[in-house]
């Protein structure tokens, strides 16, 4: 048995380290370019998503305004709650679409 162990040790020691890992010979520069391209694409898409969300929010504000108008004319309860909800949603949209990107340094 000791003879087999010596042969195995000699065999494993003769294998160069490059067979196990590339030890610093890998060029990672293509990854940085791909990451920069992906960042540019995401920022560009952020503009389009922001415009679509603002247009959908505008439509929903008009619908909510009509619902409040109908509630006022019919004398239903909960008019104040609907108005406060609409104002809160508008404040959230202003914060989400204009203040947060400016806070994190994005100029869209």
Features of the shown structure:
single chain; 108 residues; mainly alpha; 78% helix; elongated
Please, what is the average pLDDT? Answer: 79
The total count of strands amounts to 0
Beta-strand fraction estimate: under 5%
Overall outline? elongated
Helix count, per DSSP?
Answer: 3
Q: From the alpha-carbon coordinates, what is the Rg to the nearest angstrom?
A: 31 Å
Model regions low in confidence, pLDDT < 50 over at least 5 residues: none
Question: Termini separation (Å)?
Answer: 72 Å
User: What are the secondary-structure elements, in order, as H or E?
Assistant: HHH
Largest sheet: none
Helix content: over 70%
Content-based structural category: mainly alpha
What do you see in this structure?
This protein has 108 residues and is mainly α. The chain has a domain of 60 residues. Helix 2 runs antiparallel to helix 3. It starts with a helix and ends in a 5-residue tail after the last helix. The relative contact order is 0.07.
Summarize the structure.
This protein has about 110 residues and is mainly α. The protein has helices spanning about 1-15, 30-75, 80-105. It has a domain at about 50-108.
Question: What is the element layout, followed by pairings?
Answer:
Elements: H1 2-14, H2 29-74, H3 79-103
Helix pairs in contact: 2-3
